[in-house]
Structure formats: structure tokens, C-alpha cells
């Protein structure tokens, strides 16, 4: 096994995480298993970074968390995410 990662294609410029980011892939799957429920971001972030994470989620900047399926926000320096892909357009709260 090599200690270097080789990719067939580069990630898009707008992506905040690479395809194959196992933690975010598992997090997205867990959120899909609990639709509509909020969960804290799985990585530690500084208070100022929590707002950026929430913005990135809303804009779909994470490969594992497409904007049309997930919502992100922050409260008290903590980033939260929920899966909303199960809701029909216009039915979101």
C-alpha cells in the first residue's frame, strides 16, 4: 500500500471535501437514515469555522452532502446538518 493518493480525475474547484472522504460519506449515510433530524458536524471546528461549514453545506460544497439533499446551520459555534432530500419541494420548514 502506498502512502500517496492517486486520483483518476481532480475534484471540482467548488468541493470542500474530496470524493472518498470516508467520514463525511458515513455521516451523510447516517443523516439519510434519520431524515429531518439535526446532527452536529462530525469534526471539531473553531467557533468562527462553524459558520463557514454551515454555509458550505447550504451551498453544496461537500461532495458527500449535496445542497439539494442537506441543510446546514450553526448555533453557538457548532455546525449542524440534516437530511431533507426526503421532503418534496416547498414542504421544507
Topology of helices and strands:
Blueprint: H1 22-33, E1 39-40, H2 47-58, E2 70-75, E3 78-83
Antiparallel strand pairs: 1-3, 2-3
Summarize the structure in short.
With 93 residues, the chain is of the alpha+beta class. It has two helices and three strands, in the order αβαββ. It has helices at residues 22-33, 47-58; strands at residues 39-40, 70-75, 78-83.
Features:
single chain, 93 residues, alpha+beta, three-stranded antiparallel sheet, 26% helix, 15% strand
Structure description:
By secondary structure, this protein is an alpha+beta fold. Helix content is 26%, strand content 15%. It has helices spanning 22-33, 47-58, and strands spanning 39-40, 70-75, 78-83. A 3-stranded antiparallel beta sheet has the order 1-3-2. A hairpin with a 2-residue loop joins strand 2 (70-75) and strand 3. It is globular, with a radius of gyration of 14 Å. 20% of the residues are buried.
Number of helices: 2
What is the number of E strands?
3
The amount of helix comes to 25-40%
Averaged pLDDT, please?
Answer: 81
Order of neighbouring strands in the sheet with most strands: 1-3-2
Largest sheet: 3 strands, antiparallel
Oligomer: single chain
Low-confidence segments:
none
- Give the structural class: alpha+beta
What's the order of the H and E elements? HEHEE
| Strand residue percentage | 15-25%
Nearest-angstrom radius of gyration? 14 Å
Amino acid at each position: 500500500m502506498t502512502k500517496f493518493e492517486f486520483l483518476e480525475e481532480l475534484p471540482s474547484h467548488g468541493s470542500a471535501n474530496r470524493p472518498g472522504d470516508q467520514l463525511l460519506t458515513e455521516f451523510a449515510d447516517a443523516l439519510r437514515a434519520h431524515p429531518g433530524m439535526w446532527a452536529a458536524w462530525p469534526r471539531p471546528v473553531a467557533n468562527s469555522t462553524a459558520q463557514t461549514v454551515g454555509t458550505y453545506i447550504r451551498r453544496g460544497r461537500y461532495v458527500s452532502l449535496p445542497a439539494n439533499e442537506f441543510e446546514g446551520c450553526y448555533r453557538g459555534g457548532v455546525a449542524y446538518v440534516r437530511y431533507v432530500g426526503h421532503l418534496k419541494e416547498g414542504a421544507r420548514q
